[in-house]
């Protein structure tokens, strides 16, 4: 976890949890900008049977997935929730090697949140007056 202790000069909040696949960890980094990174290992699922999967077979495949050493999935978080509207990615980034994970984490740390701009209350009243006069 030392590789996450200093990202662009910032010390993120680091949370490490047991992941539901035995022997794997879920790392969550949170930065001052409100963004964070969720990092889990990439998995390999056993091949599905050609005769179609029923629920039990599907669950068996899920429970028997194996970690692929050296590959990770990275998701962007904002205020503790998955965020799919950043310029970094509209989804989870899969099959990332360690240098790619480091690059993405650096990009997340540098993100600037562009929230909706709200009108000043006086301007809001002007907008409503224009709507009524139209």
Structure description:
- The structure is a single chain.
- The chain has one domain (2-133).
- The protein contains three helices and six strands.
- The chain has helices at residues 55-63, 98-109, 121-133, and strands at 13-18, 25-30, 35-44, 66-78, 81-82, 93-96.
- Strands 1, 2, 3, 4, 5 and 6 form a six-stranded antiparallel β-sheet that branches.
Can you lay out the helices and strands and say which pair or pack?
Blueprint: E1 13-18, E2 25-30, E3 35-44, H1 55-63, E4 66-78, E5 81-82, E6 93-96, H2 98-109, H3 121-133
Antiparallel strand pairs: 1-2, 2-3, 3-4, 4-5, 4-6
User: What is the H/E order?
Assistant: EEEHEEEHH
| Model regions low in confidence, pLDDT < 50 over at least 5 residues | 116-120
Give the overall pLDDT as a whole number: 80
Strand content: 25-35%
Structural class computed from helices and strand pairing = alpha+beta
Give the oligomeric state. Answer: single chain
What number of domains? 1
Alpha carbon gyration radius = 21 Å
The number of distinct β-strands equals: 6
The shape, in one word, is: elongated
Distance from N terminus to C terminus (CA atoms, Å) equals: 61 Å
Give the biggest sheet. 6 strands, antiparallel
What percent of the residues sit in helical stretches (DSSP H or I)?
Answer: 25-40%
Output the number of helix runs.
3
């Amino acid at each position: 976890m030392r590789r996450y202790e200093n990202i662009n000069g910032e010390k993120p909040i680091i949370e490490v949890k047991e992941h539901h696949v035995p022997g794997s960890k879920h790392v969550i980094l949170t930065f001052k900008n409100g963004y964070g990174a969720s990092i889990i290992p990439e998995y390999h699922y056993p091949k599905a049977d050609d005769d179609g999967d029923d629920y039990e077979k599907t669950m068996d495949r899920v429970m028997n997935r194996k970690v692929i050493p050296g590959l990770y999935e990275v998701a962007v978080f904002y205020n503790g929730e998955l965020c799919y509207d950043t310029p970094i990615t509209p989804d989870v980034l899969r099959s990332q090697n360690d240098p790619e994970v480091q690059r993405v984490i650096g990009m997340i740390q540098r993100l600037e949140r562009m929230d909706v701009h709200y009108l000043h209350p006086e301007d809001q009243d002007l907008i409503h007056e224009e709507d009524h006069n139209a």
